[in-house]
Amino acid sequence: MSDLARRAVVSVIVTTYNRLDALKAVLHGLNRQTDGSFEVIVADDGSEPNASATSKEFGAKHVWHPHNGFRAAAIRNRAVEASGGDYLVFLDGDCIPRPSFIRRHRALAETGWFVTGNRVLLSQQATASVLSSHDHLRQNWLLHRVCGGINRLSPLLTLPIPRMRLATEWKGAQSCNLGNWRSDFDRVGGFDEAYQGWGYEDSDFVVRLIHAGVKRKDGRFATGVVHLWHPQNDRTSTARNLERLQKRLRLLAPAYVD
């Protein structure tokens, strides 16, 4: 770990919308981190009633805007503006972090790099089990896997962090588990708020980071999170957002366009 990463204040940006039970589980997970040198900003995409009381209960800042469709890009930008950290970790409000989550992100943080993590997907039944537990991560994950409650075990495994976990493409990078330096975020202009509705705002952000010379590290076997089940988001904006992303790729990275 570099001295810069060791000294850095980490800002965790937790995006949420109308899911207080999941948000509480995520904030509970953050309160149990082995590395306590971080702040939490809840980026609330218009929950009604908003999640300010829940955020304060867990010592987190709360940033809210009125709901006008899926505007994750815009509310993440507002949350970053309210943050004071040197290093940003983006986490969705339905992705529970394990106790080593911040420590592992900090260990992977390096100037000129961003870090993408992965996740375990829970079934509806397994999600109910996790949310009803006093300790949300004290589960028999092997049994959940055998019973079909989770899609895979590998994101829950941890290995010693090597010096480099190089990944070269933008594909597969998601803002539900993403770490990057605030200076790089500012340099590329944050998330593009023209993306409204579900899909591809995180891909666009990562493409611009790579184009700016920021390299990608893979956080597998280090920063994996537990993703709670939810009904599928409205996908009516997906085609429009994909077209916007493809225009970005043609402009910045034509070799990536299929």
Morphology call: globular
Biggest sheet character: 8 strands, mixed
Kindly report the spatial arrangement of strands forming the biggest sheet.
Answer: 3-2-1-4-9-6-10-8
Helix count, DSSP H or I runs of 4 or more residues: 10
Q: Ends: how far apart? A: 37 Å
Write the CATH homologous superfamily: Spore Coat Polysaccharide Biosynthesis Protein SpsA, Chain A
Radius of gyration: 17 Å
Compressed to H and E, one letter per element, the order equals: HEHEHEHEEHEEHHEEHHEEH
Describe the overall structure.
This protein has 258 residues and is α/β, with parallel strands linked by helices. It has one domain: Spore Coat Polysaccharide Biosynthesis Protein SpsA, Chain A, CATH 3.90.550.10. 35% of the residues lie in helices and 19% in strands. It has 10 helices and 11 strands. The protein has helices at 3-7, 20-31, 52-57, 72-82, 101-108, 124-132, 141-146, 182-188, 201-211, 238-252, and strands at residues 10-16, 38-44, 61-64, 87-92, 95-97, 113-116, 119-121, 166-167, 177-181, 215-218, 225-227. It has an 8-stranded mixed sheet, with helices on both faces. α9 runs parallel beside α10. The longest helix has 15 residues, at 238-252.
